[in-house]
Design a protein that fits this description.
Chain A: One of its GO terms (molecular function) is FAD binding. The complex is a heterodimer of chains A (about 350) and B (about 160). Chain A is α+β, with helices and mostly antiparallel strands. Chain A has a domain at about 225-330: Enolase-like, domain 1 (2-Layer Sandwich), CATH 3.30.390.50. Chain A is built from 13 helices and 12 strands. In chain A, the strands form 3 sheets. In chain A, strands 4-5-8-6-7 form a 5-stranded antiparallel β-sheet. Chain A has a 4-stranded antiparallel β-sheet with strand order 9-10-11-12, sandwiched between helices. In chain A, strands 1-3-2 form a 3-stranded parallel β-sheet, with helices on one face. In chain A, strand 2 (about 25-30), helix 2 (about 35-40) and strand 3 form a beta-alpha-beta unit. In chain A, helix 5 packs antiparallel against helix 9, helix 11 (about 275-280) packs antiparallel against helix 12 and helix 12 (about 285-295) packs across helix 13 (about 310-325). Chain B is built from 5 helices and 5 strands. Chain B has a 5-stranded mixed β-sheet, with helices on one face. In chain B, a hairpin with a 2-residue loop joins strand 1 (about 5-15) and strand 2 (about 15-20). In chain B, helix 2 (about 90-100) packs across helix 5. Chain B is globular and about 50 Å long. The chains are: A alpha+beta (about 350), B alpha+beta (about 160). The interface of A and B includes residues 2 and 334 of A. The structure holds flavin-adenine dinucleotide, iron/sulfur cluster (SF4) and FE2/S2 (inorganic) cluster (FES) (2 copies). One FE2/S2 (inorganic) cluster binds near residues 43, 48, 49, 52 and 53 of chain B.
Chain lengths: ~350, ~160
């Protein structure tokens, strides 16, 4: 790690003034990503601002509109095991528990999870060109080893994927990110938080330097009856997703009233396409309809040397997860697959 | 740029208070091993990928390699050196011996601290769930079956303080 100074703050205003809009002043929350990146000299800091004592952002509260507010500093583990989340947003619990390990989930915070960086091997190897780490140096993955890379929304500058599981569920649930900055409060719809790489793959999301995520709001609808999170990876635990799917349905009289499908591991942000969801509206939950929805979601998908398999994998995962959402019991650990 | 200063912190490790002066970028793992000479906690990967450095901070299992010591000022930390009750091994330690739950022993301190943390969390019911919630601790010797057997015995014996 490079040498940096360290300061603890007890409220958001103090954090904002310590950050001072300077990119070399960084927030540390759970530390599970930033400390790793500092060790590799991928991130360099002049000052770490420890926001852990900011107690106003460390809770889960009920909102007047029937939704729930998740504190940015609440840990991933405490969020996944919170009785309200388990009961009303089991899709979110499942997605969080599919990620990382128990120790890491005990440390990781909700705000930090949104801000975690890609796991592209070249991004992690400071001896290779990478536009995300070193803008303008080139992308080593496009012609290189790209098995874990994106099939949707890439640019010729970067084909990295955003690795979070939790955020796939937050995308499906249409969460809102609450932000505080030098100019006051603002919020972003979840779909607007992360961005595609375009010409500036060094920028992962639309949070500005000096801004702080204070909380994440979940709307009332939690799809607690028909939901499923399916994560496909090289080993069955403690591994990032090759492809993951978060699915929620509201079903009335045998037909789909509302559908949500978000994909992880396939793009620079959690991937949602409301056209696929609108297609399923008022239709019966059949294989034919699920297949058609999967086809819409994967429109324009493009593979590279090693990752083209992800297109078919994603299609099958979407269809299978639609069936699993009809019978959420089928996704318990150790349970037999439903198909 | 502000001056890079050392910080005075207090760590309570295995019921002993230590006052130390440290630089902000030093990991809790390095403080335990290099400053306090508690070398039971192991450094495997130093990047959060193996679980060898698992310790309990305020009762919760965490990775000491990804933790800055300065952030744990005032915390109570339990390492493998602190899990036994004097000469009496912790039930998990005893079970590890009975079930041959290690070969080289490098992952063992992390496995034991992680298992104690897991039983305290109380989320794993079945063997599959225990496996899933212990997946953050890798064993390169492949002693996993013995490890899970040991944990299941203690879990089913109902003795997990
Ligand atoms: C071995 C390993 C395996 C993993 N596997 C998975 C996995 O399978 N699935 C998965 O989803 N994740 C996985 N993770 C990633 C893990 O979930 C993230 O590292 C974690 O969520 C980050 O949260 P944190 O609080 O530790 O963030 P930190 O490391 O503290 O911070 C990360 C970034 O967020 C910024 N930040 C933190 N809080 C705020 C805030 N409130 N406002 C603004 N900026 C903020 C920091 O400045 C920093 O840039 C894994 C991590 C490791 C080490
Ligand atoms: S895919 Fe993106 S992160 Fe990976 S090497 Fe290319 S530019 Fe860097
Ligand atoms: S040494 Fe900490 S996880 Fe490997
Ligand atoms: S006993 Fe050797 S690594 Fe586990």
């Amino acid at each position: 790690m490079n040498n940096f100074s360290y300061t603890k703050v007890s409220n958001v205003q103090e954090a904002i003034s310590e950050l001072d809009g300077d990119i070399r002043n960084k927030i540390v929350a759970g530390g599970t990503n930033i400390n790793d990146l500092l060790k590799y000299f991928i991130t360099k800091a002049d000052k770490l601002v420890d926001i852990n004592p900011v107690s106003e952002n460390n809770s889960i509260i009920r909102l007047d509109n029937g939704g729930i507010r998740l504190g940015a500093l609440h840990t991933n583990a405490d969020t996944a095991y919170d009785p309200i989340i388990e009961e009303r947003y089991p899709l979110l619990s499942r997605a969080i528990l599919a990620g990382a390990s128990a120790q890491i989930r005990n440390m990781a915070t909700n705000g930090g999870n949104l801000m975690q960086r890609t796991r592209c091997y070249y991004f992690y190897d400071i001896n290779t060109p990478c536009n995300k780490r070193d803008p303008g140096s080139g992308c080593s993955a496009i012609q290189g080893y790209n098995r874990i890379h994106a099939i949707l929304g890439q640019s010729e500058n970067c084909i990295a994927v955003f690795p979070s599981d939790m955020c796939v569920a937050l995308a499906a649930l249409s969460a809102t990110v609450n932000i505080m900055g030098p100019n006051g409060e603002r919020n972003l719809a979840f779909a607007e938080f992360h961005r595609l790489p375009g010409d500036t793959p060094n920028i992962d999301n639309n949070l500005k330097h000096g801004e702080v995520i204070t909380s994440i709001d979940l709307p009332r609808q939690g799809f607690e009856k028909n939901y499923s999170y399916l994560k496909l990876r090289d080993r069955s635990s403690y591994s990032f997703a090759l492809v993951s799917v978060a699915t929620g349905f509201e079903i009335e009289n045998g037909s789909i009233k509302e559908a949500r499908i978000a994909l992880g591991g396939v793009a620079h942000k959690p991937w949602r396409n409301t056209e696929a969801e609108d297609f399923l509206k008022d239709k019966e939950p059949t294989r034919e309809n699920f297949t058609a929805a999967a086809t819409i979601l994967l429109e324009g998908a493009k593979g590279y040397q090693q990752n083209a398999f992800k297109i078919e994998l994603a299609k099958r995962a979407i269809i299978r997860n639609c069936f699993m959402a009809l019978n959420p019991e089928s996704q318990r650990p150790g349970a037999k697959p439903s198909l | 740029m502000e001056p890079k200063e050392t910080h005075a912190i207090t760590l309570n490790v295995n019921d002993t208070n230590y006052q130390i002066q440290i630089l902000p970028w030093v990991s809790l793992l390095d403080v335990l091993r290099e400053e306090l000479h508690l070398t039971g906690t192991k450094k495997g990967c130093d990047h959060g990928q193996c679980g060898a450095c698992t310790v309990l901070v305020d009762g919760k299992r965490i990775l000491s390699c990804l933790t800055l010591a300065v952030m744990k000022d005032g915390s109570a930390i339990t390492t493998i050196e602190g899990v036994a009750d004097g000469e009496n091994l912790h039930p998990i330690q005893k079970a590890f011996i009975e079930h041959d739950a290690f070969q080289c022993g490098y992952c063992t301190p992390g496995q034991i601290c992680s298992a104690i943390g897991m039983l305290k969390e109380g989320k794993a019911q079945t063997r599959e769930e225990v496996q899933e919630l212990m997946s953050g601790n890798l064993c390169r010797c492949g002693a996993n079956r013995g490890i899970i057997n040991a944990i299941m015995e203690v879990k089913e014996g109902g003795c997990h303080e």
